[in-house]
Structure formats: structure tokens, C-alpha cells
Amino acid sequence: MAPIQKHILPANGAPGVSPLAPAAGPDVPQLHPKYRPDIDGLRSIAVGSVVIFHAFPEWFKGGFIGVDIFFVISGFLISLIIFNNLEHERFSILDFYVRRVKRIFPALMTVMIVCAVAGGVILFADEYGQLGKHLLGGSTFISNILFWRESGYFDNSAETKPLLHLWSLAIEEQFYLFWPLLLAFVWKRKWGFLRIVGMIALVSFVINLHLVDHDQTAAFYSPFARFWELMVGGTLAYINLHRPDLNARGKQLQSWMGLALLVTGFVLLNGDRSFPGWWALLPCVGTFLLLSAGPGAWFNRKVLASKPMVGIGLISYPLYLWHWPLLSFATIIAGQTAPQQWRLLAVVVAVLLAWGTFLFIERPLRHARGVRIVWTLLVVNVVVGLAGGVIYHNGGFPQRPINEKLDYLARSDVFNGSRNSDGSCTRLNHLDPVNEEVCLSNSATPQILFVGDSHVMALHSAIFSRQLALPSIMVAGHACRVYPNLPYKPANVRRWSNNCTAIAQQAIAVGQQFPSIRIVVISGAYPRGNLDLPSQYKVNDHALSQREAFLSGYGALIESFLAQGKQVVFVADVPFLKLDPHACVNRFGAGPMRECAFSRAEHDEIRKAYDAAVNELRQLHPKATVFDPVELFCSATQCQAKIDGAYLYNDDQHISLAASKYLLQSMQRDGLLPFRSGQ
Fold it and tell me: Are 487 and 452 in contact (CB under 8 A)?
């Protein structure tokens, strides 16, 4: 899987709810600057780019920079209001949050409730349980933290998370926990605002640069790597009110330069760039300049302030909230990227729902007087969050009839436990953990050592779940080639596969340390495609091909264990599926929706190069045993996703608990593993 999820963009606090327009009902009336229609037009560019990017990413690969446009707009507008009221000694932090509730909650609660109901009908238990967690995260505005923690090698794709887009709203609300307090603090002490905010923004920007090189997921989701973008807008608000001399000249030039920067960002940026990083300056500075140019600049006045642009801008917040869940559910139902007709229909429906939400929910509640509506919205938010917690705690309610279609895969994930260290190796074997290592043990005197990547973790899962009683220990690393003799330069952009050489060496040390280990089982994902292409490994400045690295690395590992007197079993990788089993089930009708597995001919062609490399490995190291599970998964004509009604896979490549037991028992029958302890 990709190390980082696809760009899902922010709701911007309240695009479409203009904080510059007068609002009614506060106990302490706050001052609002004059309404600028060109800002709603700028919102329409932001939300339009987001929607097009999500619906048709093949058409508009740079549309994700709407995240930055929205953040800068939000920082500008909210800061204008706060500064205005601080000047007139009318700022109330309580009133500030009351207004945030009235702007954010009506549309947000509507969408979240609809998603909860739709999820109960459409989603399998594991998916619905995850949605419940996201409902709780959305109601508490910690979605970005949840998605940050979820992101990883086994994370399901972004397109199958209907509430993924709420991460950005969470960042905004986290920003507004400290921003008004900071502004009020600086204001009362008459400190230099630009210097203080500039320093904080610079620290945030540096964090962004650091994380984008070391952990792109953190750079994407961390509020500390994103706050500088909202501060760009806040700085412009201060300049407009207190230092207009800094941007008084060249309004037309500012507008055109801002537009040019946005267009450049849309054209140059794509999902392959290290984003945010330096690239985020394009949309942030571009938005700053367009806002700074003011409503009098030609482009702002004639284009941004035009009725169609303003019309889309007014519904940009509910449109943002609606479009992603509709596209996500379409993807889930289709089992893969939804057909273009479905995606186009989802966009049309999102626009209609956005207008309905704006006219009949947002606007009436925003202008409602009194505190009762605020308390009601808060209570609804709490109820939605608690409901999400109940859904998550109950595992997505596996007793719902739809789960019968996916069998036990929808109800449990033992593999989830078998791919994370649990302290057993330290407790039972007194081993010091290696960075990024996954170590699991069930015995102080293990007889079997499992070594490899996540595929060996899946193979080991039947032992981890105690369905097979074999005294064993597993040393593995996610996405790791366990080559003990081939150091490499870590990518450091993910939280795994940066320490694989050390993990392989740790496995050899474990074999040496425990004479009780008689059998070593080695397995890992097979390299796909052309194995003659260069690998990440070098010897004497010579880049090894993937085939050379495979033979050298696994060869060194095998020989190390043979030298210890161990029996070595190299388990060739299992066949892969075309699709995750979740995507193959017809959620609304009888019978399968599509075939998940490859035909035998397709399978043989896909891994022709890998099979040749395995055969060469067998010839080079004849004292090791190669166990090839392909015949257990494939007939002469067709590979299979299920055997005897049980799914063989958790996803498109990692075997299920049932398949783990099936494979290990087959190895027992072949005499490669003992049937019980001491055998």
C-alpha cells in the first residue's frame, strides 16, 4: 500500500458561512467587517478543485491544494473578527465558540448522522466499527489524530473511509483552541504581533519541512505542521487592520500574481510530490495575495465576485461535507474505483444536498437567537459521538445480516494482533527489542522461529491465536526484506522498513541464543515485475538488481541458520488476489459480485520471474527446504479466494487466520513442522 493516504481536503471551518456577514443572537454582539463576495468566489475555487480532484483525480491531479486555500481563508476571516472585537473591547471567548458551534455543527451533524445510518446498511462489521471510531473522532475533533495513527501498511484505502475528510476540520478546531487566546494575550500586552506570530509560524513551517522528509503521514495530519497555513491568513488580517502600508500598492499585480501561483500549484502538484513541504507555499502565498488584493482588483471583482462563483462559495462547506461520503460509499459498493457515471452522479447529488443543507438547516440555525439552539447542537454532537463509540465498542455489530456474506472476516481480525509486538519476547525470552521489529513468543524454549515480513506474520497468526499449539517465536518487520548482509539507506518517510537489516540480524541472534529452536521458517512478499531492475541495495557501489538482492540476502539468511544446525524452511509466497475480499462481495444481492482470484495462467505469468528466482535459491542452498503453497491455493485452471466456504485472505495478499491454519497443518503433514511440542 502507499505509505501515505491520498489527499483528503479540509472543510475550512465554515466555507460558505461568511463570517464577514452579520450574524444575530449573541449576548455580546461582535463586530463583523464588510462582506466580501470575492472571498466566497475564492472558496468556490477551493471546493471546486477538491471535488473535481476527488471525483476525477485523473483529470485534475493538483486539486488537493484546496486544503491550503481553505486554511488561509479561514485564518484570515476569523482573525479579522477577533482583531475587530479586541479593538473595541467586545471580544468574548465564550461567544467566539458559540458562533463556531452554530456555524460548524448543523451541517456536520446532518452528514455524520446520515453516514452512520448508511453505514449500518452498507458496511461490514469491521468497516462499520471503523466508521464508529471515526464518528467519535469527528464529534470530538480529533479525526486527524485517529487517521494519523491508523495510517500504515495495513490501512484500508482512503477511498473507503466516508469520514476521512473530517481530519481537516479537526485541525482547524485545534487551531482555534489556542489562536483567540494567543491574540488576546498579545493584544493586552501590546506586544509586536507580527514578530510573535511570525516566530510561531516559522516553527510550524520548519516542523512541516522536517516531517515531510521523515514521516510524510505526520506532516499531512499533524496540526503543528499545518498551523502556519492558518497563520498566513491571520497575519494578513493584522496587516489589513493595522499595517495597511505593507500591502497598499500594486493591488492588481497582487491579484494576478496570486492567481498565477494557484494555477502553478494546480498544474505542477500531484500525489507524488512531498506535500505539504515547500510546495504548500504556492497555494498559501497565492491565496494570501488574492485576499490582499481586495475586492477592487479586476479579477476579484469580475470573476471571484460573479454570481456563479459566489453561489458555489455559499454552499462550499456543506458541499465539502457531502461530496466525500457519497464518493466513498460509491467506491465501497462498487468494490473498486467507481465508474465515472457513478462519480458524476455523486457530485450532482452532493451539490443538491449542499443547497438543501444550506437553505433549510445551516441558515435557519445560524440565525436562530438564544442559547437553546447551541445546547441542542452540543447535545446532538455528544449523542453522535457516543453512538460512534458504541458502534466501535461492539465491533460494528456483527450480528447484522450483511456480515454473513463475508463470513468471519467481517467480524474479527486476529491478524491485527499478530502483526504487533505484545511484549512477550521480553517477558518470556528476555530479548531487547529492535527498532520497528515485531516480536511475538509463546514459549521460553521455542522450537520454531518465524522470520520475514508481514506475510510471515499472517502465516504465524494461527499460532498467535492458539489454534495451533506450537512453541514458537516470531521476529519480523513490516515491508522488510530480511537480508542480514545488505545494508541500505532508509527512506525514513514511513514508520516501517527503515531497519530491516538489523531485524534480520536480530533473527539470526535469536536463533543462536536459543538452542531449543530446531526449525526456522522464512517467508516474505514476493517482488513483482521485472527483477532485473535495480534494488535499494548496493555492494561496492554496485546497485544490485532485485534478483541479485533476493538471492544474496535470503541466501545469507538461510546459510546463517544452517550454520547453527537449524532446519530451514523457505515458504514461497502465496498467490495474490485481484481485489480485497471485501470488494468482491455483492452487498445488496445474492451471489458473488466479481471474481477476486486470478486464473492459474494469470498467476503463473505474474510471478514467472519470482518462481525462477525461488528455484535458483533452491539450487544454491540445497540443504534448505522450499515449501511452495501455490497448489494449495490454485487448481490447474483457477486460483481461489475461498476454500470450503472459508476466506483465504484478509486483503489482496495477506492470508487469513483460516489460511494460516490450513498452510501450517499442510506443513505438518509434510513433516516440516511438528504436530505438538517436543515432537
Answer: no
The closest alpha carbon to 205, from 227, 238, 187, belongs to 227
Instruction: Determine the pLDDT at residue 592.
Output: 63
Closest CA to 436 of 411, 458, 453: 453
At residue 68's C-alpha, the angle toward residues 64 and 73, to 5°, is: 130
Q: 243-294 pLDDT, tens per residue?
A: 998 998 999 999 999 999 999 999 999 988 889 999 999 999 999 999 999 9
For 336, the grid coordinates are 473498486
Element (H, E) at 667: helix 657-669
CA dist 79 and 233 (Å) reads 8
> Rounded CA gap, 672 and 96, in Å?
68
Give the other-Cβ count within 10 Å of 274's Cβ. Answer: 14
**Whole-number Å distance between alpha carbons of 481 and 503:** 10
**Contact between residue 576 and residue 655 where contact means Cβ atoms under 8 Å apart:** no
Whether residue 217 contacts residue 151, with contact meaning beta carbons closer than 8 Å, is answered with: yes
Helix (H) or strand (E) holding 417: helix 414-418
Give 335-377 pLDDT, tens digit per residue: 888 999 999 999 999 999 999 999 999 999 988 888 899 999 9
**Collapsed DSSP state (helix, strand, coil) of residue 475:** strand
Element (H, E) at 625: strand 625-627
Residue 332 to residue 161: CA distance in whole angstroms:
9
pLDDT at 199 over 90: yes
CB 461 within 8 A of CB 660: yes
String of DSSP letters for 9-37: ----S-TTS-TTS-----SSPPP-PPP-H
Residue 665 CA, chain-centre distance (Å), reads: 36
Mean pLDDT, rounded, for 643-663 = 89
CB of 49 closer than 8 Å to CB of 266: yes
